[in-house]
Amino acid sequence: MPFHGLRRFNRYLASLSDSATNPNLSFYPGLRAQPFHDARRFAIVPRLEAAVPEILRELGALEDAAFHEESEPIARRGSWEVLMLFERGRKHEENCARAPVATQIVEAGATVRTLAGLTYFSRLAAGAQIAPHRGPTNLRLRCHLPLEIPEGDCALRVGGETRTWETGRCLVFDDSFEHEAWNRTTAARTILVVDVWHPDLSAAEITALRGLHRFALAQARNLNRYWNANEAARAKKREGYD
Q: Is the overall model pTM greater than 0.85, yes or no?
């Protein structure tokens, strides 16, 4: 039975029934599609920008060993390292404890902490470049809070628009558009990435999407436990025959 007052959500659910060739998050109907959005429209932006000195102190206290190479299969040249705070429905408690100011702002805002979103520190080494790619869904927009921005050719292209980062000034863009980033300087570039819900989504739609994502994540966890338990049982039996 359709959800009352959620016509777009019902259309979105209907699209999932035809997702055999691409069973991922898919695209939500009726949302504005543009490369960059006005950062001033997002309530979290002034909070992030006002907290830059504190977040920089948190960043400075993080050990290099806490970062790891970004595991997404996105082509690149040079090093692209990340430190995850919220990772597709999972909160990294230890990392969040090391960055309490950033974490509190993210948890208080309209951020995507379901399986559709990420929050992380992103470090692009000197001379590195991330190849053109697309994000998996238009449900979210990606907010960049620039923290350490070297002078020189260090920029982000989304669709046909290219912008440079400015320390302490957020950029908000739709990463379902083709985009790429580069750092053609002699120092690293570090930003805080925070995924936020698309502003065209209603509160009711976001509530429904969160519930759908909670369900999918719970099923994935249960299935992994079930599969792992059965694999362990099969392995144990095989050992008995050796």
A: yes
